[in-house]
């Protein structure tokens, strides 16, 4: 390839900095032809920088994703001296694990629990950061607002072990609430072990941990709304609530739609550690969700193929949901999680 | 990325715009109660736990468990914990995991973010897709467990350090910042003969201090908080990180194990439990205010570019 053509290519590149269709169509099959050796010499440092991350993802993300094929095996960890050996020696059984899975009432129970908790949190948790952000935004004193933000962001950085420990200390059987009720001569209730109210408990925990953090995106969106709109509306006689309805909420719409779609795409995940930590205290009936099911029926019991099948099923549905949600986002004219740029 | 706070010249109090109607007392009252409760819901438990951890046996017995109003300070719970034993060891493990992990993860992430910030470089599209795909497809639990154990990492801190050493979210945040650096700056460095490594270390990194602080905090917190990976990969008690110990004391009902102290002289169980909570929270509460003002920027870059 001649250098002259390379320069022409470079020149034509400059005319379309955004990567849109070139004004002069290129001849088919003649993409840029800077020789590989030249590009390697130019970019080898960039490639070297990418290498460590590449290797880590290869080993700890892509290799496990390929390892999903044990869902189609009767995987026996004791067959070989290491997992790879065991994998090679295990029998292939096709969709046998999936047939077992779909006939397992415990699996469908976990499935229903997961969907119920997602739906419950969508109604009772999802709107709260929006409301809180609007409330924070309306505070005049920036110092007070900064203080409140500092405090409510904090629990986001607590581990779930810590969050559940806080709740046990406050609301558990030996906690402050029970202690106060006993002193007042009342029968103490222990919400930490009550399966009937468990769905409320996990939602309250999730709110406590992340409601403040969730406001960040909405606060940023609020600050981009043109203040003149409010003034003009007020001059036209729109009251506080009408301004909220006709200016603030439409201004937040793109962010709300985006986050709603993301949440729907992730409908089968409801905070794994949170449930695993409380599963024993509350019982499987209420606290078994898909993620804990996968854990308990694979690693905890040694039935790896079965757990892998459940995990693969969940991942496949999750991927479909994400792609579908993103499609809907594009159809609504929103950006979605990724765009085709 | 404007801050959410409209900057007023110092000294002037923020004022309500003239066109806005004066707030109704009911609305003001509701807002005060709501924000007050929210702030209290975070600060009050912290207070109770801190006070209980510093209370003597008599105070705790008198209060019936948890102490709200302090009566004197008794640090014996902390002395017992730091005298050696499970908690001291776990703190050491967690500190190592956090320090090594954060250093490694920051290095890997910054390098990859810079390597992926130049759209015309060799293999750019493929590499970018390769790095972003794990955002959509999580590594499945069972095969991941088999990979980590198969590599012989079980019961070593590397099982906790290596797998999360690159997070796609943090990568996107750092890369977004790098791409916002004016191209002229990088071009001039190149004309002066700087290699990519030199450009990164001499020009880009000094500009990126804030974003690196935020991403570093994210990594440090996630390493400090590691619990489930330890449940999976760490079977030996003496390799437990702090979250595992906290769980076994507070949630699994295991009695705090203190090395050989006679039970009569031992501080009360409640105080020890709460002291473990405080020790687990302390690093987060200590570091967080310094970095908090950069959050909005970091999170928003991720939200927009992601």
TrEMBL record, chain A:
Topology term for the membrane: Multi-pass membrane protein
Any one annotated GO CC term: plasma membrane
Keywords annotated in UniProt: Cell membrane, Membrane, Transmembrane, Transmembrane helix, Transport
GO terms classed as biological process: transmembrane transport
Transmembrane segments: 46-72, 115-136, 157-178, 198-223, 244-262, 304-325
Lineage top rank: taxon: Bacteria
Chain intervals for the UniProt region annotation (Disordered): 1-30
Family matches, as SUPFAM superfamilies: MetI-like (SSF161098)
Cell compartment(s), UniProt: Cell membrane
Domain named ABC transmembrane type-1: residues: 111-325
Sequence similarity: Belongs to the binding-protein-dependent transport system permease family.
Protein name: Sugar ABC transporter permease
UniProtKB/TrEMBL annotation, chain B:
Organism from which the protein derives: Micromonospora zingiberis
Keywords assigned: Cell membrane, Membrane, Transmembrane, Transmembrane helix, Transport
Annotated family: Belongs to the binding-protein-dependent transport system permease family.
Protein name as it appears in the record: Carbohydrate ABC transporter permease
Domain ABC transmembrane type-1: 91-287
Transmembrane segments: 32-50, 90-114, 126-145, 157-178, 199-221, 271-291
Region annotation Disordered: where it falls in the sequence: 1-24
Example of a GO biological process term: transmembrane transport
InterPro entries listed in its UniProt record: MetI-like (IPR000515), MetI-like_sf (IPR035906)
Highest taxon above the source species: Bacteria
UniProt GO cellular component terms: plasma membrane
Membrane topology category: Multi-pass membrane protein
Location(s) in or outside the cell: Cell membrane
């Amino acid at each position: 390839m001649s250098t002259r053509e390379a320069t022409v290519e470079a020149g034509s590149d400059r005319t379309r900095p955004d990567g849109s269709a070139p004004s002069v169509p290129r001849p088919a099959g003649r993409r840029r032809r800077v020789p590989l050796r030249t590009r390697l010499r130019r970019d080898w440092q960039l490639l070297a920088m990418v290498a460590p991350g590449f290797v880590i993802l290869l080993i700890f993300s892509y290799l496990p994703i390929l390892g999903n094929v044990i869902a189609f095996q009767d995987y026996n960890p004791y067959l070989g001296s290491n997992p790879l050996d065991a994998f090679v020696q295990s029998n292939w059984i096709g969709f046998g694990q999936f047939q077992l899975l779909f006939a397992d009432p415990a699996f469908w129970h976990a499935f229903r629990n997961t969907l119920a908790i997602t739906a419950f949190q969508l109604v009772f948790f999802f709107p709260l950061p929006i409301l809180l952000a609007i409330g924070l935004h309306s505070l005049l004193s920036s110092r007070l607002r900064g203080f409140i933000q500092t405090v409510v962001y904090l629990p986001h950085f607590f581990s779930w072990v810590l969050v559940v420990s806080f709740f046990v200390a406050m609301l558990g059987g030996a906690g402050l609430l029970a202690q106060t009720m006993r002193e007042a001569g009342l029968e103490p209730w222990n919400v930490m072990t009550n399966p009937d109210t468990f769905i409320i408990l996990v939602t309250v925990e999730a709110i406590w941990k992340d409601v403040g953090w969730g406001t960040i995106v909405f606060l940023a969106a609020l600050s981009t709304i043109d203040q003149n709109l409010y003034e003009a509306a007020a001059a036209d006689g729109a009251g506080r609530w009408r301004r909220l309805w006709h200016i603030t909420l439409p201004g937040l719409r793109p962010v709300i739609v985006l986050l709603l779609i993301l949440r729907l795409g992730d409908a089968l995940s409801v905070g794994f550690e949170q449930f695993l930590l409380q599963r024993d205290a509350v019982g499987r009936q209420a606290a078994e969700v898909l993620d804990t099911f996968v854990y308990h029926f694979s690693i905890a019991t040694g039935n790896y193929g079965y757990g892998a099948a459940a995990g693969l099923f969940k991942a496949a549905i999750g991927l479909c949901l994400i792609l579908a949600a993103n499609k809907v986002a594009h159809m609504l004219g929103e950006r979605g999680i990724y765009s085709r740029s | 990325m404007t801050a959410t706070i409209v900057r007023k010249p110092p000294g002037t109090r923020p004022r309500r715009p003239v066109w806005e109607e004066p707030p109704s007392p009911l609305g003001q009252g509701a807002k005060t109660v709501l924000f007050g409760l929210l702030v209290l819901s975070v600060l009050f438990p912290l207070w109770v736990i801190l006070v209980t951890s510093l209370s003597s046996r008599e105070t705790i017995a008198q209060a019936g468990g948890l102490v709200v109003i302090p009566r004197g300070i008794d640090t014996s719970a902390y002395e017992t914990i730091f005298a050696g034993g499970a908690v001291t060891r776990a703190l050491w493990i967690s500190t190592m995991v956090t320090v090594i992990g954060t250093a490694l993860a920051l290095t890997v992430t910054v390098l990859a973010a810079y390597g992926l910030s130049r759209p015309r470089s060799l293999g750019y599209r493929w590499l970018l897709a390769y790095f972003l795909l794990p955002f959509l497809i999580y590594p499945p639990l069972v095969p991941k467990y088999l990979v980590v154990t198969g590599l012989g990492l079980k019961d070593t801190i590397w099982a906790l350090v290596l797998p999360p050493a690159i997070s796609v979210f943090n990568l996107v945040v750092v890369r977004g910042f790098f791409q916002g650096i004016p191209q002229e700056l990088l071009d001039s460095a190149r004309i002066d003969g700087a290699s990519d490594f030199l450009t990164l270390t001499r020009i880009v990194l000094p500009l990126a201090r804030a974003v690196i602080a935020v991403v570093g905090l994210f990594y440090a917190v996630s390493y400090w908080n590691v619990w489930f990976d330890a449940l999976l990969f760490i079977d030996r008690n003496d390799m437990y990180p702090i979250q595992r110990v906290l769980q076994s004391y507070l949630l699994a009902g295991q009695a705090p194990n203190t090395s050989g102290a006679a039970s009569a002289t031992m501080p009360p169980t409640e105080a020890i439990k709460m002291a473990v909570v405080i020790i687990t929270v302390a690093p987060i509460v200590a570091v967080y205010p310094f970095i908090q003002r950069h959050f909005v920027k970091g999170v928003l870059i991720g939200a927009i570019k992601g």
